[in-house]
Amino acid sequence: MKLNIFMVGENKKLKGGISSVVNTYFNSNLIKEYNINYQSSYSGKNIFIDFFKAVLIFIYFLSLKKVDIVHVHSASGGSFYRKSIFVLISSFFRKKIIFHIHSGKFSDFYYLESNILGKFYIKKILCSATIIIVVSEGLKKNLEKIIKCKNKLKIVPNPIKFPRLYRDKKNNFFYDASPVKILFMGRLEKNKGIYDLIEAAEKIISHEQNVQFVLCGNGDIKKIISIVEKKGIKKYFKIPGCVEDKEKYFKEANIFVLPSYFEGVPISILEAASYSLPIVATNVGGIPDVIDNGESGFLVNPGEIKALENKILKLIRSNKLRNKMGKIAYFKAKNKCDMNIIIKQLNYIYRGLFDRNYL
After folding, report:
1. Secondary structure (H, E, C), the chain
2. What domains, with CATH codes, occur in the chain?
3. CB 46 within 8 A of CB 83
4. Using one digit for the tens of pLDDT, what is the confidence trace for 261-301?
5. In this predicted model, what pLDDT tens digit does every residue of 75-106 receive, in sequence order?
6. pTM
7. Pick from 206, 208, 285, 297: which is nearest to 257 by CA?
8. Which residues contact 327 (CB under 8 A, 6 or more apart)?
9. Which position among 71, 227, 234, 255 has the lowest Cβ density within 10 Å, counted as fewest Cβ atoms?
C-alpha cells in the first residue's frame, strides 16, 4: 500500500536550497513509491496571498483527502514561522509530521534573533513534530542543545544526482589549465563571503596572473563589478550572474570556492564535488561533513582572507593537487549524498512512522 505524503516547501521553480532538494526528490523513485502532493507556500510573488492559498489547500486535503504524513521543508526566520502554521494544523488533525530544517543559521535564529516567547514557540513547534530532519551533524548537535525531544532528530543530507566520475583523461582531467578558473556559485552577497573572495583574489592576482574568477549567482552584481573595476582587476573576472546552464560552468572550472558565513549543506558544494572539483570553503554548518580539510579540499574560518588566499594559491599552483583533491571530493560526497542513498534514508523514515521495525 502506498503512503500518502503531503509535502510543503518553496515553489520548485525558485532558485535555492529547498527547491533544489525537492526537485531532486521528484526526479527520483520517491514519486513511484508514494503518493505525494506538493504545495508551495511561496511562489516568489506575493508572499501573503501565496501563504493564505497554501493554508486553505492544506486544510482541504487534511479534511477531505487521505494524508498519512505531512513533510514540511523550512529554513529559519520568517520561513520557520510560516511553516509552523502547517505543523499546528497537522497536529490538530493528528497527522504524522516531519519537520525538515535546511537552514545553517537556525542556532542564530533561536539564540540571537528570538525573545523568550519566540524561543518557547520554536521549542513547541519542533517538539510537535514526529520527526525532525536536519541536513548535517553540526545542525543536529545545535538542536540537541535547544530541545529535549532529541530522539526525534534524524540526519538526512541534501541529495544530488551524481554523474560518473566526470574528469578523466578524455575530459582533460590531467592537464595544466590556462587560465586556472576559480568558480563561485551562490548568491552574491556578504553572507556568502563574496567580498572576502574579491579581497583574496586581489592578493592572488598580484602573485599569479594566469587565473580567472568566475562569479555565478544573483545579488550585488553591479556593486561587485564596480569594486573589481576600481581595484583594476576586472579583466581577471567573469561575472555572468544567475546562470541556467550550471553544468557548463562546473565543467570549465578547476577550483570551487564558497567562503560563506552561514550554511546548512550547500547544494553548490555537492555539485562541485560531483564534477570532481577541489573545494575551498569555510568550516561552517554541514560543510565539514562533506569536505575533509586537506583531503578533498581546504576549510578556513569565515572572514580569514589571508587563509583563503593561501589555500586558493596552493591549488592554483598544483595541477596534481587539484586532481587528487577533486577525485577524493567526488567519492566522499557520492558515498554520503548520492540521490539513491538519500532516498533510501527518507524511505526508511517514512516507513518507520508506521512500522516501528524500520526505525
Report:
1. CCCEEEEEEECCCCCCHHHHHHHHHHCCCHHHHCEEEEEEEECCCCHHHHHHHHHHHHHHHHHHCCCCEEEEEECCCHHHHHHHHHHHHHHHCCCEEEEEECCCCHHHHHHCCCCHHHHHHHHHHHHHCCEEEECCHHHHHHHHCCCCCHHHEEECCCCECCCCCCCCCCCCCCCCCCCEEEEEECCECHHHCHHHHHHHHHHHHHHCCCEEEEEECCECHHHHHHHHHHHCCHHHEEEEECCCCHHHHHHHCCEEEECCCCCCCCHHHHHHHHCCCCEEEECCCCHHHHCCECCCEEEECCCCHHHHHHHHHHHHCCHHHHHHHHHHHHHHHHHHHEHHHHHHHHHHHHHHCCCCCCC
2. 4-161+338-352 (3.40.50.2000), 180-336 (3.40.50.2000)
3. no
4. 988 889 999 999 999 999 999 999 889 988 999 999 999 99
5. 999 999 999 999 999 999 999 999 999 988 89
6. 0.88
7. 297
8. 165, 167, 276
9. 234
* pLDDT per position as a tens digit, 135-144: 999 899 999 9
Which one, of 126, 68, 114, lies nearest residue 94 by Cα? 68
CA-based nearest residue to 223, from 246, 204, 244, 198: 198
290: exposed, middle or buried (Cβ count in 10 Å: 0-12, 13-18, 19+) = buried
- CA pair distance 41, 10, nearest whole angstrom: 6
C-alpha distances in angstroms, 20 versus 16, 173, 197, 352? 6, 27, 25, 25
The span from the CA of 325 to the CA of 298, in Å, is 9
Percent of the chain with pLDDT over 70: 95
The model's pLDDT over 218-275, given as tens digits with 9 standing for 90+, comes to 999 999 999 999 999 999 999 999 998 898 999 999 999 999 998 888 999 999 999 9
Residue tagged 577525485 (cell numbers): 327
Q: Answer whether residue 176 shows pLDDT above 70.
A: no
Distance CA 126, CA 180 (A): 46
